[in-house]
Specification:
With 424 residues, the protein is of the alpha/beta class. It is built from 19 helices and 15 strands. The protein has helices spanning 16-22, 62-69, 72-75, 88-97, 109-115, 142-146, 152-164, 179-190, 209-214, 227-233, 243-246, 259-264, 266-283, 289-296, 306-313, 343-355, 365-372, 375-384, 410-415; strands at residues 4-6, 50-55, 79-84, 102-106, 125-130, 136-141, 170-173, 200-203, 220-224, 237-242, 253-258, 316-318, 324-326, 397-398, 404-405. It has a 6-stranded mixed β-sheet with strand order 1-3-2-4-11-5, sandwiched between helices. A 5-stranded mixed β-sheet has the order 8-7-9-6-10, sandwiched between helices. The chain has a two-stranded antiparallel ribbon with strand order 12-13. It is globular and about 65 Å long.
Length: 424
């Protein structure tokens, strides 16, 4: 059953001292960012002050949760309710129908909804804020570890044999246009495995991944934390690769709105963006991560042990195969421009939709990205807080297989992959 929490909007004359006294986690606010003026910006108050935020039980919901728990939504005139949902399909549908006005969302979902892809109702959405970078992983079963599999190249002969026997390997991701689907597809294809022809891909909600692996429903899965760490703690799987190893500082989850809501409520969107920018700064330092894990592990949010969340939040990786590592590319919420919505990331996503036959050759890459990606809204909120903004909206990226994505020609990039599922 969905859990909700809500907070009542404060009086506009609320002082900083009163805020620090009443916040349940005031210690996190010792380094509050510039822009704090002792209360909400009353003269430019939000058109819709009551906002319901959808989340999925994943560590990367933290910025939304902590903006709520720290009273930062309240500070900016937003009465927030956090609504934990059962699946990404529910997240999409509740935003589409207006039951939730803002939401934690997989990177590719605003594009799928805007274009009406893969069964999504056609509903234009915008992406003005990235909730995090890094922090996901591909987990394989201990059976595959015993067979010596740690790379897609080592997996290929096993996948080929299973396919020939009529029992193809099964891999789970969380939603077809989402990040985990793209990571799974990219990783498998780098080893010569076509994810649409050589294995079976299934959709499983994140909190159900570990339980399904326990009963033998899949040979591997890609999901956000803490569920990869949970599989290792339960002794059923190991981490074959983290997504930050696949793509350094990759974008992950986003804060999304419908385009219609954003157009009708520009001040509301700006108030929300200011709040999550401040929350992202508050939870970025490693010394705050233990407190963060304690809060987001609660039943109304992730519902697991704080220890399962904390390790990888600190960059402490136990891969479950004897390897341990202090990974400097742990999940980031603010560092290295983590919150900024680079348009080149949207171009990459469309290139992968094209690669896997989800869109055709008639796609207008740049026009679509301009509709969905809204760095202008991010920049406006950052300016209000006195924060610097990146100058460029695009940048090249290089992946673990040595292939570089050039955002100046996403179609050429999409057509260059030898493993694909496009028909034109």
């Amino acid at each position: 059953m969905r859990k909700k929490t809500s907070r009542t909007a404060p009086r506009c004359d609320m002082t900083r001292r009163r805020f620090l006294q009443t916040s349940t986690l005031a210690a996190l606010l010792a380094g509050m960012p510039r822009g704090w003026v002792g209360g909400a910006w009353a003269a430019d108050g939000p058109e819709t002050p009551q906002i319901r935020f959808g989340i999925i039980a994943l560590t990367d919901c933290s910025t939304i949760v902590m903006a709520h728990e720290l009273g930062l939504f309240k500070k900016h005139g937003i009465e927030s309710t956090i609504s934990k949902e059962a699946s990404w399909a529910v997240i999409r549908d509740k935003l589409t129908l207006g039951e939730n006005q803002a939401t934690h969302m997989l990177y590719g979902m605003p594009y799928a909804s805007t274009l009406g892809l893969l069964g999504a109702p056609k509903k234009p959405m915008i992406l003005p804020f990235c909730l995090n970078r890094n922090g996901q992983a591909i987990t394989l079963t201990k059976t595959l570890l015993e067979q010596g599999v740690k790379s897609p190249q080592q997996l290929k002969p096993i996948a080929d044999a299973a396919k020939a026997a009529g029992t193809p390997l099964t891999f789970a991701m969380t939603f077809p246009p989402g990040t985990h689907a793209m990571w799974t597809r990219y990783w498998l294809a780098s080893g010569g495995i076509n994810p649409d022809k050589d294995v079976t891909l299934i959709t499983i909600p994140p909190p159900q991944m570990v339980a399904n692996m326990k009963v033998g429903k899949m040979d591997g899965f890609c999901v956000g934390e803490p569920w990869n760490a949970r599989a290792i703690a339960d002794g059923i799987g190991f981490t074959a690769i983290t997504t930050q190893q696949l793509w350094k500082d990759h974008p992950e989850k986003v804060l999304a709105f419908t385009a219609e809501f954003a157009e009708r409520n520009p001040r509301t969107v700006q108030a929300i963006l200011r709040a999550v920018l401040e929350a992202a700064q508050a939870i970025e330092p490693l010394e705050q991560r233990a407190k963060l894990a304690t809060v987001v592990s609660r039943p109304e949010y992730i519902n697991t042990s704080p220890d399962v969340i904390l390790g990888r939040l600190l960059g402490d990786y136990d891969y479950g195969d004897g390897r341990t590592e202090k990974d400097p590319l742990y999940m980031s919420f603010f560092a290295r421009d983590a919150t900024f919505p680079l348009k080149s990331h949207g171009l990459w996503w469309l290139s992968q939709f094209r690669r896997w036959g989800m869109i055709g050759p008639d796609v207008d890459y740049r026009a679509t990205v301009d509709r969905v990606h809204r760095p202008d809204l991010w920049r406006a909120a950052a300016k209000d807080l006195g924060l610097p903004a990146p100058v460029a909206d695009v940048k090249a990226e290089t992946f673990f297989d040595g292939v570089t994505f050039d955002p100046s020609d996403p179609e050429k990039y999409a057509l260059a992959f030898p493993v694909h599922s496009r028909t034109a």
